[in-house]
Amino acid sequence: MPPFEPSLDAPREGSRSNPAIAPEPPPDSASPPEPPGPEAENAAPSSEEPAENPSPGPRESSPVAETPAEHIPAEDDSPPPISPRTSSKPPPPLLASQALIEDLAPVEPLGQRARVLCIVVGVLFAGLGALMHLSVERGHSALIPSIVVGAVTLFAAVARVTYRQRAVAMVALGAIVAVLGVAGTGPAQGTAQAGALWSVARFVGATTLPAALLFRARYRAFTGARLLLGFAFLVSLPYAFHAIGLVAQHNTFGVAQLGAVLALTLLAAGLPGFMGSETTAAGTFVAPAMIGAFALQAGLERLGALVPGALADTLGLVESIAEDGDPLAAATPTVQFTISAIRDGAITAVAFAASVFLSALGVFQILAWKFAPEARLIDVRRPKAADHMDDRPSYEDWSARS
User: Fold this and answer.
1) Is position 96 within any domain?
2) Which of 27, 84, 232, 336 has the maximal Cβ count within 10 Å?
């Protein structure tokens, strides 16, 4: 490799340059080179410059070699770009205690199902009003209120409101349907067959008790859930006494008494809700079953008022028709169910169930909104009494010590 030779246009150190004598251009260049400007001092070394100087002598200084470090181009100082994936922090892991709290004390539960329920109940209210319009006995009294209540219920489903506001609207709509039923109009106008007082007591019991059972099942570790369940049972006692009197005071056992027995049975099924926090007491299944039992009682009570008589007379009529083979040849029955009576009883049961489902779910969501922050303060790592029992030394430990 030839030794390093300084550029012709750069004067050597210590030598004087004669401005009168111009340097000769190189033989392979057609025009004389331009004198180096200020930009040449900041330029990077040429790639044609050899990587090392094999000569042992001291290397002569050049403008390129004397370039300070701060004149290096800016693109060399910039750090390599960092991708967003490497700079973003991973999300914190989900702890088992957090998952347990979400299971024991959820935040705003059944929010989407409340919307679906409002849509179904709204369509049902309007449909029941149109169906009762076909009844000659009731005329046009139930059509307009049913359509109005159904439209408002549909609006509550699609409106952009908060969780608490929709829950309050659901309770209010169910109560309005119950009040219209007591007044003898609306989709649930057949529910006041036993009187306005007992109709209101049945609606209050059928609303608060299933809501408390559902709250007890979803917030089973919350101590206040059992207190709310006890309060709901106290509220349901007036209707329970009415159902017991309905069964005991009548000599004949008709369809109304059958509905009262169903309601009392489901009332007793809610008593396991006072058990410990280790179990939900099947509250999510008992609550809708209890609403169905109350609705059946309302429908059967309406049917029993339209068709009075004992249930045994109805069974005897069926047996007589089955033996003779000709219904016209049978004797005039004591109890005769007509199509209109069955339709009125079914409409009453469905309308009562729809209004109670709406109000019960609204009461549950109000309880969840009110007590969920307090219920989430539970200590999921709290030791149980059984754990302390297991820590006691066994008989083998005592024998080994002796």
Assistant:
1) no
2) 232
The DSSP secondary structure of 141-199, one letter per residue, reads TTHHHHHHHHHHHHHHHHS---HHHHHHHHHHHHHHHHHHHHTT-STTGGGGTT-HHHH
Tell me if 74 is assigned to some domain: no
Q: How far apart (Å, rounded) are the C-alpha atoms in residues 16 and 21?
A: 12
Cβ atoms of 345 and 142 within 8 Å: the answer is no
Closest C-alpha among 299, 360, 34 to residue 171: 360
Q: Which two tokens stand for residue 148?
A: 């109005």
Q: pLDDT tens, 10-28?
A: 444 444 444 444 455 555 4
Counting the structural domains of the chain, the total is 1
Amino acid at the residue 75: E
Residue 303 placed within a domain: yes
Tens of pLDDT, residues 251-271: 778 888 899 999 999 999 999
- In single-letter form, the type of residue at position 252 comes to T
Residue 387: inside a domain:
no
Give the number of other CB atoms < 10 A from CB of residue 267: 20
Measured distance CA(66)–CA(50) in Å, rounded:
17
* Residues 176, 186: Cα–Cα separation, whole Å: 9
- Residue 240 structural domain: 107-379
Report, in angstroms and rounded to the nearest whole number, the Rg of the chain calculated over CA atoms: 45
Integer angstrom CA distances of residue 107 from 132, 368, 372, 373: 40, 7, 6, 8
